[in-house]
Amino acid sequence: MAKAITLEGNFAAAAGLNEMLLQSYSGTIYIFPAIPDDWRDVAFKTLRAEGAFLISAERRAGLVEQIKIFSEKGGICKIENPFSGAPYRFKGVRSKNIALVGDEITIKTSLGQRITLSRIKT
Fold first, then answer.
1. CB neighbour list of residue 68: distance below 8 Å, 6 or more residues apart
2. What whole-number distance in Å separates Cα of residue 107 and Cα of residue 94?
3. For labelling alongside 48, which of 12, 24, 71, 119 has CA 20 to 30 A away?
4. Cα(87)–Cα(77) distance, integer angstroms
5. Domain over 7-119 is classified CATH 2.60.40.1180
């Protein structure tokens, strides 16, 4: 008897992996929210987040090193600060359009804008 392969099972596995890498709900984006500690080096490219944002991110030696954001339509992008209190720099956005409020980085974006957030190595 042949075994049946269902698309639903494959889609569930992909969705589970996606949720480990990126979550976006309630207006906030979470980077690597459910990655096991022993996954020290992980990266992803152009995962879709709520609000029409495409996100790419890289984690090395257990630390988030860089996040790239592409704003497809403009608007407010809120990201839980993944840099664990370490200093970071930003490129592609004016300082008046980015703020750290509590544990959340808030960025006012425009249509087609590309933004990079990078950990500053000390």
1. 55, 56, 57, 114, 115, 116
2. 9
3. 119
4. 19
5. yes
* Alpha carbon distance 83, 112 (integer Å): 25
> Measured between alpha carbons, how far is 27 from 101 in angstroms, rounded to an integer?
14
Both tokens of 61, joined, read 């030696």
Q: In 10 A of CB 22, how many CB atoms?
A: 21
Q: What is the rounded CA–CA span in Å between residue 66 and residue 58?
A: 5
Q: CA-CA distance, 82 to 92, in Å (whole number)? A: 19
Q: What is the pLDDT along the chain (122 residues), one digit of tens a residue?
A: 566 666 565 555 555 567 889 999 889 999 999 999 899 999 999 999 999 999 999 999 999 999 999 999 999 999 999 998 899 999 999 999 999 999 999 999 999 999 999 999 87
Query: Which segments of the chain are extended strands (E)?
Result: 22-25, 28-31, 42-49, 53-60, 63-71, 75-80, 88-91, 98-101, 104-109, 114-119
Give the angle subtended at the CA of 71 by the CAs of 14 and 74, to the nearest 5°: 130
